[in-house]
Amino acid sequence: MVQLNVIGAGLVLGQLSLIGSVYIISQVVQRFRRFGTIPISLKFPMYIAFTDIGIYISVMYNQLAVVFTGRVFQGLQCQIQGFLFSIVSGTNILLVSIFALITFLSSKYNYHVNFGRYDYQLWIGIILSSIAGGSIMFPSFSADKYWCYFSPNRDGITISIVTTLFTFGNFFLTIIFFSLTLYQIKNLRTLHRHNIQSNLVMNAIELKITKKMLFYIFNFLIQWGLALPYLCIPFTGIVEEWMYLLCNVGMCSGGILNLIGYLYNEGFYTRNSSETK
After folding, report:
1. In this predicted model, what pLDDT tens digit does every residue of 223-261 receive, in sequence order?
2. Which of 7, 19, 153, 239 has the most CB atoms less than 10 A away?
3. How does 102-136 read in b/e, with b if 16+ C-beta sit within 10 Å?
4. What is the mean pLDDT of residues 145-161?
5. Which residues pair with 142 in a beta bridge?
6. Pick the residue with more confidence: 82 or 106?
7. Cα-flanking dihedrals φ and ψ of residue 143, to 5°?
């Protein structure tokens, strides 16, 4: 029953996550065709949607193997699968941290980072960093109970150290940048209330962007927060079924959480260029 719950939750949530990710991408592409530009508040959820699709493919490939063969991949095939998952998940985590930094730079120093058609440079840097992390962990990837990552019965401490430091480090940086952004917006509001000269247009834009980013960053914290108990297994030595369930729910809910934030910020249909910042 527990195995059915763990795998079943992943299979069901995964399909919903895929639908949510495809919807976001289609809406942003539709806006780009109409106006020729994509603001950062739409690039953020769209890029996350791309990584959520990557996570979906990796997780489904793992778990469908269990459903149809009754066993997890073994040996080199399992190591490759773990390596690929580390790339897509690492890309997801780095994207959120980078956009949190961009939001802070925009609000604090009026410094706008817009790669435009050169966004591929951002992706190359992030993917290469994820590949480097996955390469370090590659020898330690092995078959676990439900998927390929690390086995509690083997030495998974290398994976746990790299993954935990990477995840917690990016959590910490994301929270810092986002908190500093909120503090800056609070200062701008104070200046406005006291009729002190300030860039009121920038104030309104940054406040709107911060509100949107809040949803996406908060959803990121939920998604990866659910996975942390599982990632800490080699440290704690505690192995419980609920850890697998929470991890699978978190990994397969990214597109759902991202869609909730997108619908709240943008609505069901693409808005015109004056309404989306």
Report:
1. 988 888 887 777 777 888 889 999 999 999 999 999 999
2. 7
3. bbbbbbbeeeeeeeeeeeeebeeebeeebeebbee
4. 69
5. 149
6. 82
7. -80, 125
pLDDT level of residue 180 (50, 70, 90 thresholds): confident
Contacts of residue 45, defined as CB under 8 A and 6 or more positions apart, other chains included, come to 24, 28, 216, 258, 261, 262, 265
Q: Is the pLDDT of residue 45 over 90?
A: yes
